[in-house]
Amino acid sequence: MTLVLTEEAEIRPAAKPRSARLWRPRRVLVTPAALDHAHGRQIVARAEHLGLPVERLKSNRLTGLRDENPRRAYAEAKATLAVVTAPPTKLKLQPIPPSADWRFDLAEGCPAHCQYCYLAGSLSGPPVTRAYANLDAILGNLEGYLGQGGVTSASETRAGEGTTFEASCYTDPLGIEHLTGSLSAAIRHFGAWDAPVQLRFTTKFAAVGPLLDLPHRGRTRIRFSVNAAAAARYEGGTAPLAERLTAMGAVARAGYPVGLTIAPILPVEDWPDAYDALLRDAAEALADVARPDLTVELITHRFTPGSKTVLEGWYPGSDLPMRETERTRKLTKFGSVKYVFPSDLMRAMRAHLTERIALRLPAARILYWT
User: DSSP letter at 167?
Assistant: First the structure.
């Protein structure tokens, strides 16, 4: 399938934001290579329409983003959108178990301020949000992976999802959609792809209005990252939980498959009741949806020594529980160290959440616990 991007169609201003939490970066940097692509020019047009300052760089390198003060470097980077081209390595897709067959990136970085952010241990350098201008190459590359993969393509229980492609491993694509339009383009691409495929992304934002009328044909699963109410203090700059759940109901009524990504699961005060309340609210959001296509992914909190160091630099006043003495030390398949909850607590949380999901959301499929 050939992807066609029409500059005239995409250069129209983005839909008016409905949420006060839509990100407005203080700086928009654009590389010369990004301006060689229609999609890059469209992102610039969107930013300028919103009155954002756009700086056209003289080279394709992003420089001057580091600062001796890590807090100042973090703040400046989180307020910056860079429009760049994805390097060739991005076109060599990597598997992303247990979520999907393959991971591809529309962007890297996220405007939210989550104190447990796993990107702290995954991406190097200041946390600038980089939006990729060569979208035609990124989406056109996916067809070569059709029918391959070891998560859904090779699974008896999930084969109905087809070949799955995860778009939110290194970003929250809905959080920057009003600036990029990349997510809408990807949804249209999958909707026009006449094959057993599924686009997947998860979000902590709620501005789903521009997605509701897209020709998705049921080939995009929109999952909402949610948590117990007590964890809200760790999720700065995101849409409130109630707005996310309302958005889930809206996209489900628009025919999208939907999902709950309950993450990161934490032993907050009265956690059994807290997570049951979350599931009750999710059920209410879907109450008027007949037979929703709903999945649930359960992800417990974990950290690495490296991510802990970065996060403590970013959020020095956080009370996020990251004491190694309260965790179990494990080695990943790559030989690195991570700290997870003790096995007895893990078993208790898994049993409780599984039981309450069956009660509150009987139509839901639990995809995995990790």
Answer: -
